[in-house]
Write the structure tokens for this entry.
Amino acid sequence: MKNEELLNRLFFKMTDYFKNDKKRIFHFIKVHSVAAHIGAAEGLDEHTLFILRAAAYVHDIGIKPSEEKYGSCTGRQQELEGPPVAEKMLDELDFAESDVERIKYLVAHHHTYASIDGDDYQILVEADFIVNMEEDELSSDAVRTCLEKHFKTSAGKRLCKNIFAL
């Protein structure tokens, strides 16, 4: 199966997963779009871009089990609860085992900003930040601080500055 077909199937599987939760569905759609554009602008190879895009779709998959288990969904709880759910979904869609492992790793670390290893990881973090900053209506000062502290890619910095008029 081609990567685009796998991503399309994953997209609809995630809309099923978050059915009737338009906020969460639109969140992963926006993170995916931002991540895909930053990844392309940064020249990611085709396979790394595929991993990034899949991870962007499932990055918050741990929200539901976190809410069920803890009654909340902190970033750390999502990182703990998300990988097994992502693995099950990706396995059902016949993702390659090595791809599943990397995607699970990204899900398990997307709220951990120390020791980022890989362009896919860095770009996922930046895309999630951009979308969260917009959704949470952060102040210009908070956006600027986040940009200076966490953004490394030229495309991510450019997009953040353009969106938030910095």
User: Anything to note?
Assistant: The chain has one domain: 3-163. The longest helix spans residues 22-41. Residues 3-163 form a domain with the Hypothetical protein af1432 fold (CATH 1.10.3210.10).
